[in-house]
Design brief:
Elements: H1 18-29, E1 44-47, E2 54-57, E3 63-65, H2 79-90, H3 97-104, H4 108-127, E4 134-142, E5 157-165, E6 175-180, E7 186-187, E8 190-191, H5 193-203, E9 211-214, H6 224-241, H7 246-263, H8 269-279, H9 285-290
Parallel strand pairs: 4-9
Antiparallel strand pairs: 1-2, 2-3, 4-5, 5-6, 7-8
Length: about 290
C-alpha cells in the first residue's frame, strides 16, 4: 500500500517511505541536531544494518535508537503504517481499529494496539496541562447506544467535563477536559465531594480561584455548553466504536478532547500528535489490557 503524505504547513508528514519517516522522527527527537544520551556529544555515525538506523556517538560509541523512549519503541510495524494511523486519528472523526486494520493491512489486534498507544500518548500530554482562568465543571454521563442518560443502567459512566478560559473570553474555553469519576466517589448516582476534590487537585491549576462545579447533572445551574460538548463526545464514541465499557473509556474521552483543543489553536494537529508520541514512554499490550479504573 502506498501512502502519500506531504510536507506542507497543514500536513507536516513524509511522503510514503520509511526513510522519510525516519528523517521526520529524527527532527522531532533531536530538533537541534543529534545529542548523545550518554555523553551529550553531537557527532555520530549512522549504522544502517538494521531495519531502522542506529546512531553511534563518535566520542563514547553509545548506540542510540531513534524510537527509544517513545510509543513506537519495540514495534515491528512499518513507520509508514504508524504515520497512516496518526493521520487518521488527526482527522475530525478519528478512526476505529477495524477501519485501520483494513487500510494498513495489519491484524485487528495490531491496529487496536497502535491506536491505544496513540491515545495513551494523548493522555500523557493531557496530564501536563491544567485548567486555568475561569474554570467551569459539570457532571455528565456516558451510556452505550441502547441506553438513555435519563435511565439508570449498569453501563452508565459519570464523568466530569471541565473547561478553562481566559478572563477576557470566558465563553470560549482555551482547554477542555473530560475525566471519568472513580466509582468510589459515586453512590446512588450522586457524586460526592471527594470526586470534586480529586478533580481539582489533578486537573486544575492551584493558582486558579474562579472555579465553579455543578456536581448534579440536572441542576438548574448546569453549564449547557459543557453538557453539549459531552454529548458530542458520547455520540462520537457510540457512532465510531459502537459503544464502550468503562475499562478503556477514558482514553477515548482524551482523544476527543485532544482534537477539540488542538483545533482551537493555530497548530498542525498531525505534527503535534507525532511530537506527543515521541515524548510518551513505551506502553505494552500487557499494560493496556491489565488497566482498570
Amino acid at each position: 500500500m502506498k501512502t502519500d503524505f506531504l510536507f506542507t504547513e497543514a500536513h507536516t508528514y513524509p511522503s510514503g517511505s520509511e526513510d522519510a519517516c525516519v528523517t521526520l522522527l529524527f527532527q522531532i527527537k533531536w530538533p537541534d541536531g543529534f545529542v548523545c544520551p550518554r555523553c551529550t556529544y553531537s557527532d555520530f555515525y549512522v549504522i544502517s544494518t538494521r531495519r531502522l538506523p542506529l546512531y553511534e556517538c563518535r566520542l563514547c560509541h553509545y548506540q542510540a535508537s531513534l524510537l527509544t523512549g517513545s510509543i513506537f519503541e519495540g514495534s515491528k510495524t512499518d513507520l509508514t503504517k504508524w504515520f497512516t494511523a496518526l493521520a487518521l486519528v488527526s482527522t475530525e472523526g478519528g478512526t476505529s481499529a477495524n477501519r485501520l486494520h483494513q487500510i494498513i493491512r495489519v491484524t485487528y489486534k495490531t491496529a487496536w494496539l497502535m491506536l491505544q498507544k496513540i491515545r495513551y500518548a494523548i493522555g500523557c500530554a493531557d496530564t501536563e496541562t491544567l485548567l486555568l482562568g475561569t474554570v467551569r465543571v459539570n457532571t455528565a454521563v456516558y451510556n452505550r447506544p441502547q441506553n438513555s442518560s435519563f435511565q439508570a443502567s449498569p453501563t452508565e459512566q459519570p464523568f466530569f467535563v471541565g473547561a478553562g478560559a481566559s478572563m477576557e473570553t470566558p465563553a470560549e474555553p482555551d482547554y477542555v477536559k473530560m475525566k471519568l469519576i472513580p466509582k468510589q466517589y459515586i453512590r446512588d448516582r450522586v457524586v460526592n465531594g471527594k470526586a470534586i476534590q480529586a478533580f481539582t487537585e489533578s486537573e486544575i491549576d492551584g493558582t486558579t480561584t474562579d472555579v465553579t462545579f455543578v456536581a448534579q447533572r440536572y441542576s438548574s445551574a448546569r453549564f449547557i455548553p459543557l453538557l453539549q460538548l459531552a454529548a458530542r463526545a458520547c455520540r462520537w464514541i457510540n457512532r465510531t466504536f459502537m459503544g464502550l465499557g468503562r475499562k478503556h473509556l477514558q482514553v477515548y474521552l482524551d482523544e476527543f478532547c485532544y482534537r477539540l483543543n488542538t483545533s482551537r489553536i493555530s497548530t498542525c494537529i498531525l505534527s503535534t500528535l507525532a511530537n506527543l508520541c515521541m515524548r510518551a514512554p513505551r506502553f505494552t499490550y500487557k499494560q493496556l489490557t491489565s488497566f482498570s479504573s
